[in-house]
Amino acid sequence: MSDDHAYQAISAYNEKLIQTPNIDRIAREGAIFTNSCVTNSICAPSRATILTGKHNHINGKIDNRSPFDTTQITFPQLFQRAGYQTAMFGKLHFGNNPKGIDDFMILPGQGHYINPDFITTQGDTTIIGYVTDIITDLALDWLENKRDETKPFLMMYLHKAPHRPWWPSPEKFKEYSKKQYPIPVTLFDDYRNRGTAAKSAEMNILKDLRYGHDSKIRPETIASMDDIEPFVEPYNWGGSDGFSTSYVRFNDEQKSKYDPVIDSINIWFQSNWHKMTDKKKMEWKYQRYMQDYLGSISSVDDNVGRVLDYLKEHKLDDNTIVAYTSDQGFYLGEHGWFDKRFIYDESFKTPLLIKWPNKIKPGIKRTEMVQNLDFAQTFLEAANITQPDDMQGESILPLLIGNEKDWKRNAVYYHYYEYPAVHMVKRHYGIITEKFKLAHFYYDIDEWELYDRSLDPNEMMNVYRDPDYRKIVIELKNKLANLRSYYKDSRELDLYYIDKYLKN
Ligand code: SGN
Ligand code: CA
Predict the structure, then answer these.
(1) What are phi and psi of 304, to 5 degrees?
(2) Rounded to the nearest whole angstrom, what is the distance from the C-alpha of residue 237 to the centroid of ligand 1?
(3) I need a labelling partner for 152 at 20 to 30 A (CA). Which of 18, 33, 139, 187 fits?
């Protein structure tokens, strides 16, 4: 699993942006899901859903801030009890260590790209190098030296990349900073015909990406330019300029590898920024964003290749299920945005590729709506371990092994909570069917949005008030109420979580 990896940036889904030959191998040897989605498009809640097989209003981890209730059963605990050896490497993003894991080395919180700290079963440590390579080294070292060959194993291999602030490895930084990417058709979206939530979100590339933190402009460059907006990097960085919070971790050797590229970006910026219209600034920021984001992904792909090669070389691949996913999707300039959170497709959908030789036919493509809610039960069923009755997903195994007639789901439920908070995406829940998406933004506004997914795939026109859709609205509201009650969500719980959040 990686963090914030948009399906638009995997060549098995879309070849416009990047080639990811290693991740694609999983699809070629197994299955790719084109409508895999999350229940809540944000990091720790998605991980909590994956681990517990429950929606966030049940497992309580509604946002990145709320604590994870460690009395809950997570699926690795069930694997451990069933005799599996279990391990976890990389980003967990909980306030606590994982349960049911024999060996782990996890990043504290968001973790760092360069010279990352790790929380381990033996105490804390810092490892010099690039995080994506290091997490893979740890995973391979475990497979090679710590794995008990008499036992089956469950390994969670969890990248920090390509999470913000996007720092590729020095080599990829050099390579990718020269590339140019196609401009998305909705980069200059003005949010007309949408609700208040899209208009008031703070994730616009022009307005909300930071020159230092995101585009790698040095504080000295900004200080030397008299007419640029003051160097304000408002949140998360404790008053720092954003650029320095990452750069300060590099040792001299690392700085010397990054510096020539950073310098050339800064020199260009210094002499051109004055001449740039808002349109040009938007395009420049978009290109810088893509270069660093995709450069970070390229290392993830190389490292996924190392793991796949290891499994093959050690004859483990024949009887090992390999799944690749992300904690949610991400905006790569669609609607002018970066980040995630919304029920709209780019953040709601997430990559899912799974291979299992001799069980899953190579090269199959599935279009059913599956969710991160389903993973726990899928893995449990595949391993013949009893699924707890209170898990809320469904095993997707039937879709993988040719029993699709057993699959009955025709709608999924979504609920996002973290507001007010960074990026200011308002709380909302909704229902998604193959043809429609109906969402209710219920705090601190009361607005509904309806999108016709087949006529308007880019979700540019809220048709909730269009008389032609009146019948559909009534039908979907009924269905949504049924889903809310099926999953045991309610207005009372919405209010409970608002109250709890505001008190913290
Ligand atoms: C950080 C990021 C945000 C991001 C959240 C949540 N800022 O605050 O852009 O939305 O994490 O991301 S940054 O300081 O890291 O650049 S999540 O994936 O953990 O949910
Ligand atoms: Ca994430």
Answers:
(1) -60, -40
(2) 11
(3) 33
